[in-house]
Amino acid sequence: MLPVGLILAGGQGRRVHGADKGLLLWQGRPMVAWMSDLLQPFCGMCLISCRRESRPAYAAYADLLVHDATPDFPGPLAGLLAALPYCQHAECLILPCDMPLLPPAALQKLIDAARCAPPEIPAFMLEHQGQAQPLLALLRPPAMQAIPTALSTGERSLRRFLCAQGTQRISCELPGFDNLNHDQ
User: Fold this and answer.
1) How many structural domains does the chain have?
2) What is the C-alpha separation between 136 and 169, in angstroms, rounded?
3) Does 176 reside within a domain?
4) CATH code of the domain containing 10
5) Which one of 40, 53, 106, 168 is at 20 to 30 Å from 131 when CA atoms are compared?
6) What sign for the dihedral angle of Cα 90, 71, 152, 155?
């Protein structure tokens, strides 16, 4: 079964003066369009977690849109929580909305790792140049099902959550790991 794909695009956009990062243009297209094109071949369904007020602008790039239950930008874990009803029995392949240079081979590394790993490993995250990339991850259902508890205890960091789950890091030294989340 193909994973559910989730593009995280619901943030505050602090580095871009409050703009909606996924809707910023890169080479003439919204960044989310690039990310959707990248993700769709790997997934059975593509979701975007976005701001409520931006839903109409994102609709063309996903099968379904989800949004955080609270208006205070609680972080990527809240975006994953919004996707939980669609990932309770399927893997969830996540990526940010602002990495249009990411090569498909990076996502393939995550999927291949999950296919070869024993079922007790709950999640996989890419590592690039020794740095964990928590927004480039594949979560199995047990990791997804642990999100409500983590949020209820005040956890807001996806990196800490993934580490607490026993996530396996997958080294990926391909080019294209630049986040374009700043003024161009």
Assistant:
1) 1
2) 10
3) no
4) 3.90.550.10
5) 40
6) positive
pTM: predicted TM-score of the whole model, two decimal places: 0.91
Whether residue 54 is predicted with pLDDT greater than 60 in this model: the reply is yes
- The answer as to whether 177 is a domain residue is no
CB 6 within 8 A of CB 63: no
Q: Please give the structure tokens belonging to residue 184.
A: 């161009």
Q: Could you tell me the maximum CA-CA distance found in the chain, to the nearest angstrom?
A: 43
